[in-house]
Amino acid sequence: MLPTKVFIFILICYRATADVNDRYYPRYHLAPPYGWMNDPNGFSEYRNEYHLFYQFNPNSSLVPGIAHWGHAKSKDLFRWEHLPIAMYPDQWYDKGGVFSGSAIVENDKLYLYYTGNVNNPDQYPDHQQHQVLAISTNGINVTKQVINPIINGTEYQPDFRDPKVWKYGKTYYMVLGNSFHDNDTNSTLGRALLYTSKDKTQWNFASILDESDGSLGYMWECPDFFELDGRFVLLFSPQGIQPSGYKYRNLYQTGYIVGNFDYKTNMFTPITEFVELDHGHDFYATQTILDKAKRRILIAWMDMWDQNYVEAEDGFTGQMTMPRVLSLDKNNRLIQRPVKEIASLRGRTRFSGRARAGAVIRLRDKAAEIHIKSSPNNDLDILIESSNASNSVLISYNYQRGLVTLNRGGKDGVRRTKWRPESDKLHLKAYIDASSIELFFGNGEVTFSSRFFPTGAVKVRIGGSNDVESITVFDLQRTIDASYEIESED
Ligand SMILES: *[C@@H]1O[C@H](CO)[C@@H](O)[C@H](O)[C@H]1NC(C)=O
Ligand SMILES: *[C@@H]1O[C@H](CO)[C@@H](O)[C@H](O)[C@H]1NC(C)=O
Ligand SMILES: *[C@@H]1O[C@H](CO)[C@@H](O)[C@H](O)[C@H]1NC(C)=O
Ligand SMILES: *[C@@H]1O[C@H](CO)[C@@H](O)[C@H](O)[C@H]1NC(C)=O
Ligand SMILES: *[C@@H]1O[C@H](CO)[C@@H](O)[C@H](O)[C@H]1NC(C)=O
Ligand SMILES: *[C@@H]1O[C@H](CO)[C@@H](O)[C@H](O)[C@H]1NC(C)=O
């Protein structure tokens, strides 16, 4: 089904309203105006606004199709404005998809590095992936460069993609995801390759940052590499990791390895194992930036391949997580906290105080921020209820077992991980938004990001038999919808 678009001319603005049903459309998370969204791309800060591009199929919300780059910008990471499609698959090197990539800003120009996918993914294995460059001088119009492709990567085909670029000193660095054949084990393994450049266009292979030994999958997508609190973090989305206990339950994972890196030798020395970054159902293909306030901000696709969520019938598929600030704690764990700008969305305080077991708080417009403080020595059960019990979420802490669980019901509804409060109180922040829930336990050392599809009003119920010492529920204002306004040139 193609979404029908209605264009209405209003003074100097074009307003395009897609045929998108609002029931599951996020109120404050970025989602496509219509069609299909997957990976975040080209996350950047340009002329004092955050820009976020994303894998976009304008033709349908039912299938990923041939990727375009969708585009939005925001001053505060929540009030997003949809912009025209930034890139179409219109060159010989990207006719099979304008695949994922990243951005750097220099001399008031936005440099967009991405992977051109040559053939239709359906024609696999007859495909090639090249790294290419496009430039924008106004933050809207994007020009693909005539020198493309800048990296052919003949020896790394066919899975060679997702360039993430940064600058250190006078050198530019690019980390790329790759899949290679290991002759010793006769298996296909994932790895992250590092390239360097002095001029942003001519690139040379520098090193293999790290590779799978077989336990970490056959392909590493969307690698990112950055310094944080004195260490280096290799963050990536491996494909092919087998489920193990509570871990790796999703089709594909996202996680990180912390280590040390030497810019002289380009060698990365891991000091931790691979750790999953989020424990929910829908968290993939992360991208980070260091913004002007020196925050390392992360955003992920809050969806997963092969889910076929009901929203697809509503004219859109996919959304981004809320932006989170990363830090590294003394145990080399990545800590995630919602960016502070979320506070500017707070409306009325719907409830604040002690809540008895069984208490019910009804949310306004299916959107809320919830802060909970409770005893670390009691079980905790919080229900996020929909009018249909099978579309509700149960959040629980099991004191005996030291486990936190998110159960969204249905097939494969449970995600859990070991965790105990590390302070004298159990702290939990939960963000609900029409068809998603994000949980931040403790200081942000454990998070869950999952989609769920509530019908009717959404209510928070204190389950179990214990009172909750303190619960505060804030309304969150709507900051985004499925329409977009573009100031016309004339
Ligand atoms: C998809 O959209 C493009 C415009 O970007 C259009 O040219 C193309 O024909 C569409 N393809 C399909 C299969 O609808
Ligand atoms: C940007 O693209 C739009 C059409 O998409 C065009 O009208 C406009 O002239 C372009 N602006 C520049 C500066 O190239
Ligand atoms: C990549 O291949 C294209 C087409 O064969 C060629 O024109 C271009 O010079 C090559 N670029 C590099 C960097 O090798
Ligand atoms: C694996 O073996 C093949 C065939 O012998 C060879 O072409 C290839 O270079 C080898 N790969 C590696 C990574 O050594
Ligand atoms: C390597 O694996 C492939 C496919 O899994 C198989 O066809 C081939 O015989 C194997 N080669 C060796 C040397 O074991
Ligand atoms: C409740 O949701 C389930 C799963 O989405 C669905 O199969 C069922 O039909 C729904 N029931 C009602 C009464 O809407």
UniProtKB/TrEMBL annotation:
Keyword line: Glycosidase, Hydrolase, Signal
Top-tier EC class: hydrolase
Domain of life: Eukaryota
GO terms, molecular function: beta-fructofuranosidase activity
Domain Glycosyl hydrolase family 32 N-terminal span(s) in chain numbering: 29-338
Reaction equations catalysed: Hydrolysis of terminal non-reducing beta-D-fructofuranoside residues in beta-D-fructofuranosides
Pfam families per UniProt: Glyco_hydro_32C (PF08244), Glyco_hydro_32N (PF00251)
GO aspect biological process, one term: carbohydrate metabolic process
GO terms for cellular component: cytoplasm
EC nos: 3.2.1.26
Signal peptide: 1-18
Protein family according to the UniProt entry: Belongs to the glycosyl hydrolase 32 family.
Protein name: Sucrose-6-phosphate hydrolase
Top-level taxonomy: Eukaryota, Metazoa, Ecdysozoa, Arthropoda, Hexapoda
